[in-house]
Design a protein that fits this description.
The structure is a homodimer.
Chain A (H helix, E strand, L loop, with lengths): L7 H11 L16 H19 L3 H7 L2 E2 L5 E2 L4 H10 L18 H14 L1 H20 L2 H13 L2 E6 L15 E4 L5 E11 L8 E10 L10 E6 L1 E3 L5 E4 L2 E6 L10 E14 L5 H37 L23 H33 L3 H36 L11 H9 L8 H12 L6 H16 L7 H24 L4 H36 L5 H17 L3 H10 L3 H4 L7
Parallel strand pairs in A: 3-6, 4-6
Antiparallel strand pairs in A: 1-2, 4-5, 5-11, 6-7, 7-11, 8-9, 10-11
Helix pairs in contact in A: 1-2, 1-9, 2-5, 5-6, 5-8, 5-9, 6-7, 6-8, 8-9, 8-10, 8-11, 9-10, 9-15, 9-16, 10-11, 10-12, 10-13, 10-15, 12-15, 13-14, 14-15, 14-16, 14-17, 15-16, 15-17
Chain lengths: ~600, ~600
């Protein structure tokens, strides 16, 4: 049976020591966040993850969700009780506005706590995660009247949320969607159509479900310019704000899928279902993007989550499994064999995963804090910079953390040998679960295109310049610090590769956009490597500083310095290879006729 | 529903044009293999794969094998009928000796046909594949008496075979095994113990199952030096050679696993089961290695198989799925959107897979022919060279083709977006099925160690020198051929990287074997890249030659030249990155204490 222990110490090190959350204490929601309070919150969240959510992860996968003959959906055993614990603890609305009954804490906290929840139970964590996304979209775009109907219930977790975008013939290209909306006399709309792949689309955890639905108002223009966003509850809301009669929203079937079996992935049928417009008519994609960007960050975190859970279990197995002897002679001659953790190839695997995980978590903290800053600082210059960072890094986080996170679960599974393929050990579930974050909320190829085609050129490349500028300044600031050279020298080379690839795009892809498409995925991964390498340099700097001051936990610092060295030696050099690929352009792949594939 | 069409033209191009199978016509079994006969055999095998095995692949996965209350095991619907077709067509014993009722054809043919069968239905193909492995092991090591009991039945497919190695506490380290053998008065042995992960361990396809079992004879030395190999049938064999009463061999349970659900993976209980020694006492591992090497080659092929099936389906989807527009403007303005095959990132994915598949198939053909040569040529010098090649390349094929094959199924699944995660499309099955070849028959980390620790240094590095020598000569021979430069120049660089990494091991790993362990996986992949790059250079040469002679199919040649260029541009440069990793050694990963992971 797999296990999970939330890495609270890691989280606190990042918040307090590396990114100095203290500096934000003047911002709304940060005021009371002393180190002690932070510690208490994350300890409690970690406990919930390890003791409540993790024990129903494997059983939830094996049991799955069920659609009963009456069309209702049940979640696996234990999900209702666990959800009630989550809800009663106020975890769903931790970052929701106090006006809506939330706790008003920074989004950063919710993002980092969701890491724990998804590590413990990805399928379960999605229910609350989607509510938070729906809350965010409504909070920005909904009318006060609509807000009054839904915000408190979403914040409390009494009701849950969903995103209804995909239809059988359209996923990425939402301009093709056909679900229609007809205006009613009272200003509301009646929605009809079929949506597929709807996570948490129906279930027994909450008495009502708040669907955000993209649809086309009768007579609207074709394409993306005719798409509007609606909120459509599963059950109508009565005058007292309570869930009342059904509303023409049904789950037609559950999708049979590779993993996340504990989450109900539904085909949703809307049959003259009553709903309200969110934001302006025909501007639905813009409104939906608030939710999608939120969701992309959440999905990025899932990549780390499963990677972390897989790592922890692989370490336990590698310490326990006695098989063969160390290449340099028996290390435990009194045992029948050495534990496989003596083998360099096993250590290579484990350190690859961990050196990614720790830097990925740092990248999430850094970006999450920028997200809060973008929403909460009164300083317009800081707001723009934070917003630039968030916008630039979101596709990188989503694409790279989920790609690498999946690879890491596969590598961790490999540590188990044949047992990794057997369900009861739980590793194959991690692989199946970790596969979906690469796909949903925009498949990773789309993230790469978003980065290269939209985020790089935005505002004359301002965001990228700021990003590379900060890294360049850091490298320069530590150019004469000998202990920092193992981190900043490889980072410098990697950043130069990234800069060269960017330059190549500027010189070549403007004339032929296929060159940008051909190199986009490699570029995104270069960007990820440089970002992760920078995180290691920052963490190493803090560790060296604390060591020199005799502060903190020496073993903790030494581990970090070792992991950072490992990452710099073995992962950063990948940028050179990726750069070669980018600079090869698109010729060989565009030349082949479609019917010759 | 996924589909599959066997790449017969590819197979024949490799056999006839690239590797000139004609040159072997003097060897046993090759005499009658005219191009026409080869074409007929592969066409027929392809038909069987596409029309009989493929249609029961998805349903076989969904239904799985079942253990009935009486302990018997059933395979999914359609498996019995398909197996009978396979058996009646003489496919199981295609390469078995004519003395045993086989067709005496080269092993190369069986290996290449098994590619088709495993593409169509990996779980199904394993039943016959294991019989072929058991046949090979018995053919080399069994006494005439034992052979007379089993060989004809295995060759005809009436009975099937298995390998019983793994026990709960030992997989890689077989020296730890506990299954015991007690000598009976008649010279046979009674075997008792439990084996796990036994593919095709029990089923309803054949009236008897021939288990090859590793066990320890009472009083034998500890460790690998006390392990013997036995043949233990499910049912005893009567004087007429027919299956008679049961023999204390039962399937205790079926393993719940990630994939290959159509294959019965059994926990096997041996309870005083009667069997016969194969080969010498306490030399069981040596005898088993015949079967394992055979099996490793077969598993390597499975890596290609699933990659090929995944590729074919991803191409179909990419041509059919209309979504978005080309980056350079609409290509099908009359349709609601362009098919996604217009996108460079999709083409990159597809060409990556295909440029691997075609070179991997070439590598299999090259090595399979060497295997036949090693077994069948009367020329002792040629035999040694062929045997060196086979020995050196087996771990590379197993490790690289299954690692990359799996990655390719994941990439092909990604082309489908959300549909890739849904079972009915079949792509997620390919991923789950393709995961096991990386693990069984020696996890890929073990293959890498076998390559670096055993195969490289064997006979003073003779095999490696011959391998690199051949590639060096090829590069030199084409040094002034301008059309060949896109293939030989990147190959030259890659081969130099491989040579440098080898040199680094020689200079560093003799003193510290951990350096070899730390770099082994990267080295294996470098070796694979150079091997595949060499295959592309050879194929390109044949294509250019045939083009210049006005022979053959121009479009076929042009596709190959494009794919070869793509591989050289985008995959071969990976050796430089892998080399950096090898040369970084083991320090960072060995320094961390086991309890700090």
């Amino acid at each position: 049976m797999p296990a999970y222990k939330a890495p609270v110490k890691e989280t606190l090190f990042l918040l307090n020591d590396v990114f100095n959350i203290e500096q934000y204490r003047s911002l709304r929601g940060f005021e009371d966040l002393s180190p002690d309070l932070l510690s208490a919150i994350f300890e409690e969240a970690g406990k919930l993850a390890g003791e409540v959510l993790q024990p129903i992860n494997l059983s939830g996968d094996q049991q799955g969700c069920k659609r009963l003959p009456d069309g209702s959906i049940t979640t696996p055993d234990g999900f209702i009780a666990a959800y009630n614990t989550l809800k009663d603890g106020g975890w769903v609305g931790l970052s929701a506005d106090e006006a809506h009954g939330g706790q008003g804490l920074p989004a950063t906290l919710t993002i980092l706590i969701n890491e724990y929840f998804a590590s413990a139970n990805l399928a379960f964590g999605m229910y609350a995660g989607l509510s938070q996304g729906a809350y965010a979209a409504l909070n920005v775009h909904a009318s006060d009247d609509v807000k009054s109907k839904f915000m408190e219930k979403l914040a409390s977790g009494e009701w849950t949320g969903t995103m209804n975008l995909t239809e059988p013939h359209c996923g990425t290209d939402l301009g093709l969607l056909r679900t229609k909306a007809v205006r009613a006399d009272d200003g509301s709309y009646n929605i009809s159509g079929t949506k597929i792949f709807i996570s948490a689309g129906d279930h027994d955890l909450a008495e009502n479900i708040v669907h955000l639905v993209l649809a086309r108002i009768e007579g609207a223009p074709e394409g993306t310019k005719g798409v509007s966003l609606f909120v459509v509850p599963k059950r109508k809301v009565d005058a007292d704000g309570n869930a009342a009669e059904t509303n023409g929203v049904t789950c037609g079937s559950l999708e049979e899928k590779m993993g996340i079996h504990g989450n109900a992935t539904c085909v949703m049928n809307f049959d003259d279902a009553n709903g309200w417009l969110i934001g302006e008519e025909n501007r639905g994609l813009k409104a939906m993007f608030v939710m999608m960007n939120e969701a992309r960050m959440g999905v990025a975190v899932q990549g780390l989550s499963v990677s972390e859970a897989a790592y922890q279990n692989a370490v336990t197995y590698a310490r326990d499994r006695l098989q063969g002897r160390s290449l340099t002679g028996p290390k435990f001659p009194d045992k029948i064999a050495d534990p496989i953790i003596v083998h360099p190839d096993i250590r290579r695997t484990l350190m690859s995963i961990r050196s990614f995980n720790e830097a990925a978590r740092a990248l999430i903290v850094w970006t999450a804090l920028k997200s809060d800053e973008a929403h909460r600082t009164p300083d317009s210059d800081a707001r723009q910079k934070a917003s630039d960072h968030l916008s630039l890094l979101t596709p990188v986080l989503k694409g790279v953390l989920t790609d690498r996170g999946f690879d890491n679960t596969v590598a961790a599974q490999q540590v188990y040998g044949g047992h990794g393929y057997i369900s009861e050990w739980g590793m194959e579930q991690f692989v199946r679960d970790a596969r979906i974050p690469m796909i949903y909320e925009g498949a990773n190829g789309i993230q790469a295109l978003d980065l290269v085609g939209r985020k790089l050129p935005a505002d004359g490349g301002r965001a990228l310049q700021a990003f590379l500028g900060e890294i360049g300044m850091f490298i320069q600031a530590h150019a004469t610090d000998e202990d920092m050279q193992p981190f900043v020298l490889p980072l410098k080379t990697a950043a130069e590769d990234l800069q060269a690839a960017t330059m190549w795009f500027m010189q070549n892809a403007l004339g032929n956009p296929d060159h940008a498409g051909a190199g986009s995925t490699d570029y995104m991964h270069m960007f990820g490597l440089v970002s992760l390498g920078y995180m290691w340099a920052r963490m190493a700097h803090v560790c060296l500083q604390q060591k020199s001051e005799g502060k903190g936990d020496v073993a903790f610092h030494d581990d970090k310095l070792l992991l950072g060295t490992f990452f710099a030696e073995r992962h950063l050099p990948e940028t050179a290879f990726r750069r070669v690929r980018v600079e090869n352009g698109s010729e060989s792949m565009m030349k082949m006729a479609a019917d010759r594939f």
